[in-house]
Amino acid sequence: MNYKANESRYDNGMKYERCGRSGVLLPKVSLGFWHNFGGVDPYERSREITRYAFDHGITHFDLANNYGPPYGSAEETLGRLMQDDFAPYRDELFISTKAGYDMWPGPYGNWGSRKYLMASLDQSLRRMHLDYVDLFYSHRFDPETPIEETLQAMVDIVRQGKALYLGISRWPADALAKAIDYLAERDTPLLIFQDKLNMLNRTPETNGTLELCKSRGVGFISFSPLAQGLLTDRYLQGIPTDSRMAKEKFLRKDMLTEELLNQLQEWNEEAKKCGQTLAEKALRWILNHEGVTSVLVGASSVAQLEKNLKALS
User: Fold this and answer.
1) What superfamily would CATH give domain 16-232+277-312?
2) Would you say the pTM of this structure is higher than 0.85?
């Protein structure tokens, strides 16, 4: 059945925030493809989630070259979605991808060299069936490659028309400050910085990164806002047998200490008093930060995404 987007998608509660000092507006809640969109995941489920997201005003889809599993398969899923559903809406979408982590064997499939970044983006565009991405990120800082090489490759990617804007993810604050200057001097200003910010991990607050972005007109987007599910009702009574923590996938069992469990239960009670879930409280906590443009949420079902969007109400 051909997909026709909801005609009221921009009138159903989604809020949009200006990204730094740019002309770009991003939805306050964006959809991340880190989990649940790989080759091991049912395509029709990914399709339902993505359709629901766009029908409710989520215009920003965030990917990376190695999202899956297997590597590259989340981008392949998006490519299929573009062909099946979203090609008519390409100009309404803001699509990002990244390169920086392990992607293919050998010395040129990792980190921040010019060769890796450019080759990786070419591969990403083929997988996603796109002529360009709206936003291309350096996914991590490379301490061995000269910072000028990484940044100049990104500048040239924009000049070649393969990306409209540039982003940086998880670089240390001093390197980020250099990148902001370097890119501005070449008329390709840094649009956005992506990092982990949530009620359990406040590093961007404490290391000055969030303040740096705010003062320099750079947007900020938070990933893992629910701490891989810790900031939901999933672990309030312990470790479910079918959970990521039980399988020690991204979460270790020893992380759920008695102290942390007590803290989660306390926050949950506070949320209840406000008529919220713990997840809503956690998302609102981030969105209420001055300088935060958007939060990236993952979803394994439409119902989960629907719950997350309640944080906007």
Assistant:
1) NADP-dependent oxidoreductase domain (3.20.20.100)
2) yes
